[in-house]
Amino acid sequence: MIRQVGSAFALTFRGPGAPLAYAVTFGLGTALTAFYLVMLPSSAVGGFSLIALRYLTPALSLSAASLGYGFALTIAINVGSPAQRSRTAEAAGIGGLLAAILPGSLCCTSIVPSALAALGASVPTVLGTTGKIQSIFALYESAFIAASIAGVALSIVLAAHNRVSHCTLQSP
């Protein structure tokens, strides 16, 4: 597995497609990392705001960089792949990114009460249930982030497998 990832990096970042791979990795990775630097600590302020940067910790910074550059690396490997694109790798990467957004967007915001109201819940039900649902995301925020990083790492491994496992046809 590690050998496949190393081979995929070598194939992606050497040769004719290397400039595009570097541009995707660093351009998209920087944009996604900047987004996650604000998004991950946003539960402390109750929504997506630059004020959340005050609550940024070294662990959240490392998580933001892992998510941002990891997803960009998955895209770069898939873009450079001569084989058919791996939908599994893309799904794992997108799933990891969405799971990282969940704690910050569902804890301490109006999304949960609005969803309950849209489903037809009564006011007492909305008021009694909202805190319980939101507390799950607040209590287990670090587990959601860890699972997201694992999902992005899995997407890198799957993209690397896709990159190095192409068939060459031999003439008889």
Describe the protein in words.
By secondary structure, the chain is an all-alpha fold. The protein has one domain. The chain contains 7 helices and no strands. The longest helix is centred in the C-terminal third of the chain and has 24 residues, at 141-164. The radius of gyration is 20 Å and the shape is elongated.
Looking at this protein, list some descriptive labels.
single chain, 172 residues, elongated, mainly alpha
Binned, the helix content reads over 70%
The radius of gyration is 20 Å
Q: What's the N-to-C terminus distance?
A: 32 Å
Strand content: under 5%
Task: Please trace the helix and strand order, writing H or E for each element.
Answer: HHHHHHH
> What general outline do the C-alpha atoms trace?
elongated
Q: In terms of structural class, how would the helical and strand content be classed? A: mainly alpha
What is the makeup of the main sheet?
none
Enumerate how many helices there are, as a single number. 7
Per DSSP E runs of 2 or more residues, the count of β-strands stands at 0
Number of domains: 1
Low-confidence stretches: none
Instruction: Report the average pLDDT across residues.
Output: 78
